[in-house]
Amino acid sequence: MANIRSITRFLSKYSPEIAAQLQDARQRLAKHFPRGFELVYDNYNALVFAYSPTERGGDAILSVAGYPKWVTLFFAQGASLEDPAKILTGSGPRFRSIRLQPADLLRRADVQKLIRAAKAAASSELKAAPPLTTIINAVSTKQRARKPAAARTRSRRAAR
Asked: What pLDDT is recorded for position 115?
């Protein structure tokens, strides 16, 4: 129950649109990961939900991160994924990402195919994992603003 309250508090720092998109992404990704761990990081730059067959963040298969103006889906081994539609961005040795704009991009067949391909490499570890368990791994005391500047100004005016 503490995890649910904490996640609700983390999401409340965002605009309603970004909070809803993050929550929708979590629900959709949970369907892909009935087993394993949802690792939560409320860090300096973003709120991150990583999906892993173990409790170790380094074993994460993919993650979804909320920023003030968008949500991004990251693939830990994205550089090795086949991407015929060329929707993955990034040039590092491992990670690739997709900015989920528009918000329903996560529902697209080519994105779903990438998620399934990323999971396939860890299928035996996921089968051995417990039912999906949420763990709050880190909460930074110092964080960047979670809402765009204009939204923060409107929120302060409405609070008066």
From this structure: 97
pTM score of the predicted model: 0.90
Gyration radius (Cα) of the chain, Å: 16
Bridge partner list, 64: 49, 73
| Look-up of token digits 């204009």 | 150
| H-only helix segments in the chain | 2-11, 16-32, 109-120, 123-128, 149-159
**Domain membership flag for residue 158:** no
Range of the domain at 6: 2-152
Percent of the chain at pLDDT exceeding 90: 82
Domain count for the chain = 1
Contacts of 3 (CB under 8 A, 6+ apart): 40, 134, 135, 136
